[in-house]
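Take a look at my tokenised protein here and describe the backbone shape.
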Amino acid sequence: MIRLLALLLAAQAPAIPKVVVSVQVPDVVQVAAGQSGEARIVATIANGFKIQANPASDRFLIPARLRFEPDDRVRVGDPEYPAGKPYRLQGAKTDMSVYEKSVEIRVPLEAIGSGKGAAASSLETTLQGSLRFQACNAVVCLKPASVPVMVRVRIEPGVTTPPR
């Protein structure tokens, strides 16, 4: 009897797509040596799913969080997350703050180096990172997951002033 009930519930639950969140990054971000720039990362969320916003609406929820590994050529600032949208689960007393469909996260970048030590030609590096999230639909919350994020940055020669 329990098996039959489990099969019936499974048949009614919507199928979970293999990819719930995918990430699009710019082809390349160009920043002059010693100057600042910005990478715009867009996370696309599968139809019917939502991910917790950052900050999350409660401490036990897992917010979307974009992180990058340190890089010797580019200083990565704190990601700028948009405000989430209110969403209330059936039977809940309060709203959660979520992202759905797509969300753009802005990441400030600063190319390290300027003046005498500035490169004479452009350099390229790839920032390695990940977006961690927890996705939920109206029926189930999936376990927390991460997707890789790689951003190519081209550092152009900085403007130097001749020595006096």
Remarks:
- Residues 36 and 110 are 4 Å apart (CA to CA).
- DSSP finds one helix and twelve strands in the chain.
